[in-house]
Design a protein that fits this description.
binds zinc ion
Length: about 230
């Protein structure tokens, strides 16, 4: 972790806070491999480029670290902090990840001939999420293409009963494609319903890394989200 002085630690109203100016550049990663210069996490999907108000030094920082500070989202703009800042950053992250997912789908459509893929892309365009069936289709296509895209960038609809039932109707290989990217809570729920992949299959899936690292389809993309 970097020392606070390197990053313009300022005192605002008696409370220590980072003061940053957002440069407008924000990077989305389809492989979840970006590193934050403050907290050192290296599995991040979205990274914001900022300057320190004090020294003009450029840093790339995650949403969480930036959300703890005081930030001007545009040069000369008002300084945001607290709930308002975190809300704005959350909205920007959602937009960046949406574009990242669409870029992945666009590149797959251009480079693979799978007849089920256009339907998946249309569904994602309309819903900004994937149903279990569409997610399984996409994740198997990614895997077969040797892509190193991390499937966790796509949100899968599994909160509603209808989607949990849809998961239950998937074939074992389809369930297996989805299982590694699901949250522990969702896995528990599906297991309670009797929908988990069979035990020996789950055992084998623990060794599966959704990030195969063979061929890069999409890695990091920069987007300009100047406000
Ligand atoms: Zn961080």
């Amino acid at each position: 972790m970097n020392s606070s002085s390197e990053h313009g630690l300022a005192c605002v109203g008696g409370i220590a806070a980072y003061q940053w100016i957002f440069t407008g550049d924000v990077k989305g990663s389809a492989t979840l491999n970006q590193r934050c210069s403050i907290c050192d996490r290296d599995d991040l999907s979205v990274m914001f480029q900022v300057r320190t108000a004090a020294s003009d030094a450029i840093s790339e920082i995650c949403e969480t670290c930036l959300g703890k500070g005081a930030v001007a989202l545009q040069p000369g703009g008002s300084i945001l902090r607290g709930h308002e800042l975190r809300h704005q950053l959350g909205q920007m992250c959602m937009r960046v990840m949406l574009r990242t997912c669409k870029d992945v789908l666009r590149e797959l459509l251009a480079n693979t001939n799978d007849s089920k893929l256009p339907e998946v892309a249309v569904y994602f365009d309309r819903n900004a999420q994937l149903s279990p069936r569409h997610a399984a289709t996409l994740f198997l296509i990614l895997s077969n293409a040797g892509s190193n895209v991390d499937a966790r960038i796509f949100q899968v609809q599994l909160r509603k009963t209808e989607h949990q039932q849809e998961f239950g109707r998937l074939l074992q290989p389809e369930k297996l494609a989805l299982w590694p990217v699901l949250s522990p809570a969702i896995r528990t729920r599906l297991a309670t319903l009797g929908f988990a992949p069979t035990p020996d299959v789950v055992q084998r899936s623990r060794g599966i890394n959704s990030n195969s690292g063979r061929h890069v389809a999409v890695d990091q993309r920069s987007y300009d989200l100047r406000m």
